[in-house]
Amino acid sequence: MDKIKIALAGNPNVGKSTLFNRWTGMRQHVGNWPGKTVEKKEGSFKYDQYGMEVIDLPGNYSLTAYSVEEVVSRDYIVGEKPDVIVNIIDAANLERNLYLTVQMMELGANLVLALNMNKFAREKGLKINKKQLSELLGVPVIEIEAVDDTGSEKLLQTIVKVSKSPNVVLDRLEYGNEVSEHTKQLEKIIDQDIPQLDAPSSWIALKLMEEDPEIIKKIEETGKGQRVLKEIKKIQRHFNDVFGDDADAAITDARYGFIAGLVSESVKKPKIDKVTRSDLIDRVVTHKYLGIPIFLLIMWLTFQITFTLGDPLGGYVEEAFAWLGETIAASMGEGFLTSFIVDGIIGGVGGVLVFVPLIFILFLILSILEDSGYLARAAFVMDRFMHKLVGLHGKSFIPMILGFGCAVPGIMATRTLENERDRLLTMLIVPFMSCSARLPVYALIVAAFFSAYQGWVIFSLYLLGIVVAIIVAAIFKKTIFKGMSAPFVMELPPYRLPTAKGALIHMWERGALFLKKAGTIILALSVVIWALSSLPVGVEYGSQESVTGQIGTVLSPIFAPLGFGEWQATVAIIYGFLAKEVVVSTFGTLYGIDGDGGGEEASDEEVSANETASVEQVSNEASGEQVSGETAVEEASAEEEETALEEDPGYIAVMQELFTPLSAYAYMVFVLLYIPCLATLAAIRRETNSWKWPAFAAVYTFVVAYVVSFVVYQGGLIMGFA
Amino acid sequence: MIKTLNNLKQGETGIIVAFKGKGNVRKHLMEMGLVRGSDIKVERVAPLGDPIEIKIKGYSLSLRKEDAKKVEIEIK
Ligand SMILES: Nc1nc2c(ncn2[C@@H]2O[C@H](COP(=O)(O)OP(=O)(O)OP(=O)(O)O)[C@@H](O)[C@H]2O)c(=O)[nH]1
Ligand SMILES: [Mg+2]
């Protein structure tokens, strides 16, 4: 069977992935480009007697080295030499779409143009003469509809045909005398000096005149580029003298000039632009006074729907795992192996799966917001605020708001940011938004120490998180992300009704990826923590004799200057790494308190069951349900009698023994700021495709937490709050 | 009359006569269609006063005023 290698290329949001999914169905593989955070999608299907292998290139406006996506696409076209490139074009936005086409022609790519979104072009009153366009470009032009089968057969036939007899397109481009002459002149030197390059020398010549850093580097690396590079300098001076501008600008002008010629010969436009539906919607949605309230309302709805719908569902998952754990524990009896299976494995898997409803619902909503075109407006409305405050892009606002619910979906929402640095910086500060998992910790401590000012104390912590995020972002902008300010240049796509299928596919792709990549890490680390708490064999789970307990005991002096040098406080912090609300139940476990108010020693059985409950409480976090210290067994049997820990006099007594009000506040500050939970780190790992960033996040948040808590405690002491 | 893009009012139209400056952002904006001779219209300004939305080459693009300052427009 003959194989045909096809690449789908085009501007963002033109329907590449829609066509890709239609063609390949479930036979696709989603991964990352090597070393890049850019998603790579490959798939295959059969057509006639051919095996079609398709790659969905990232959406691009150009093929300069402006963004990672552009470099990825370009390297693929140059390096992998696909048999056919299907360039999908938004017919309603022909001129700008052709800019990319022209650049692929410069590369000598074997193109087929697929005109998509023809309905919208007609609505705009555009009439495109396909035949004329095709003749002028020397490339077949096919009208398709990516959402259904229109034009699909014709497109496939053309692909097969073109793969056999490639189009010759290099001689079609006309960039005017000045640019062409200099290109030719350079081309000649390149051909003489460095003939073995894998891209057309005319393209190399153009890129050099555009001062493309990647290409200049490549030429320098050959060691034979001296003459070429010298010639470039001369040409650039010449352009500056003649046009008062760089060759770079002249080439961009020339490309658009060529396109203007094409369009004037093949497209009929209405004299006056019609007022489109999108314009009408924008008049309201980005209105001077209504714009921000509408944005906040939509954010609030997103938040509400995600967490009110996701939490109960997460609760069911949690209950199912609790039940499973009990059943297994009951049938296997107590023991090391039981503890491993129940607390380690089932607890770990449960800890991953409780996130599933939350994440899938969130991605569904985000996909709808993105596909409809609203997300771009949200960024437009919020950009000034974010830019002034933290030097970030307007789109960063959404992940940060979601962070108040749970940092994991917040981190995953950074996907919508095109700029890699913005994405990284946003990921690094999202964990400072006080997520709902911290609430039970505050609730417990506040009840013991600050009952008169509960609301204010908790509010102060939320505020502190935001202030720290702003300060940290400012510091990062001046240090590790120095000079990397991303400009705000963003297309505002026309509003479209999102299709259910498209939204569901997006949701599934992103959600499944989280499960696969982050899930395995969360599970593995949960087992590690279980092991540390259960070893050496025979110790009580998480007691001072266990490895965790010993680590806590050794480390605890570090925290003495922050006001909480007791080993129990340190062990609670270690468990908080699993999920922050576990801090609360750890105190319950360590002091053997159950929800009925007793202060008696806990039995082995209770201790381990308690831990199971706490690991699975990952989802309780968001429901705002107060974490109780009851064992899982009791929880299931006596749900209605549940007493919240913070109302428990025994617990309050223990807390008051362990902390002073000042050290309790410092402890809350520390819990707010220190190392994001396991799931968050796993999400960062997944999104950045490297261990570097989660490791960095863990270390720097620890430092920040330590410093801020230190200042709070010592400052408090000085001011006499002890 | 020539004005810089950031000074155009909502609804004002013109033709790009020059794009001053250097660098990546300028290049990117040119590639997005802000080249000499193109028709341009300021569609609206964001609620907080920045960025702005323009219509260029038949589509909508938003950019910050600090970048728009570099674009010179001949008002029709
Ligand atoms: N009405 C209509 N909508 C379409 C058509 N093709 C795609 N869409 C919609 O356009 C939106 C974007 O489509 P995608 O396939 O995700 O676009 P893409 O080119 O992969 O976008 P990027 O991956 O961002 O570069 C989706 O909401 C699609 O449902 C079409 O032919 N007609
Ligand atoms: Mg896509």
What does this structure look like?
The complex is a heterodimer of chains A (722) and B (76). With 722 residues, chain A is an alpha/beta fold. Chain A has 3 domains: 2-172, P-loop containing nucleotide triphosphate hydrolases (Rossmann fold, 3-Layer(aba) Sandwich); 177-244, no CATH class; 294-718, no CATH class. In chain A, 62% of the residues lie in helices and 7% in strands. Chain A contains 32 helices and 10 strands. A 7-stranded mixed β-sheet of chain A has the order 2-3-4-1-5-6-8, sandwiched between helices. Chain A has a two-stranded antiparallel ribbon with strand order 7-9. The longest helix of chain A has 42 residues, at 291-332. Chain A is elongated, with a radius of gyration of 30 Å. The N and C termini of chain A lie far apart (80 Å). Mean pLDDT of chain A is 82; it is low at 594-643. Helices cover 16% and strands 42% of the residues of chain B. In chain B, strand 3 (39-45) and strand 4 form a beta hairpin. The model of chain B has no long low-confidence stretch (mean pLDDT 93). Chain B has a 6-stranded antiparallel β-sheet. By secondary structure, chain B is an alpha+beta fold. Chain B has one domain (2-75): Ferrous iron transport protein A (FeoA) (SH3 type barrels, Roll). Chain B is built from 2 helices and 6 strands. The longest helix of chain B has 8 residues, at 24-31. Chain A binds chain B through residues 61-62, 64, 66, 92-96, 99, 124, 210, 246, 248-249, 252-253, 256, 269, 273, 278-279, 282-283, 286-289, 291-292, 376, 380-381, 383-385, 387, 487-494, and chain B through 19, 22, 24-33, 35-36, 38, 43-51, 53, 55, 57-64, 67. The complex binds guanosine-5'-triphosphate (GTP) and magnesium ion. Magnesium ion binds at residues 16-17, 56, 59 of chain A. Magnesium ion is lined by residues 16-17, 56, 59 of chain A.
Keywords:
heterodimer; A: about 725 residues; alpha/beta; Rossmann fold; 3 domains; 7-stranded mixed β-sheet; two-stranded antiparallel ribbon; 10 strands; B: about 80 residues; alpha+beta; SH3 type barrels; 2 helices; 6 strands; about 15% helix; binds guanosine-5'-triphosphate; binds magnesium ion
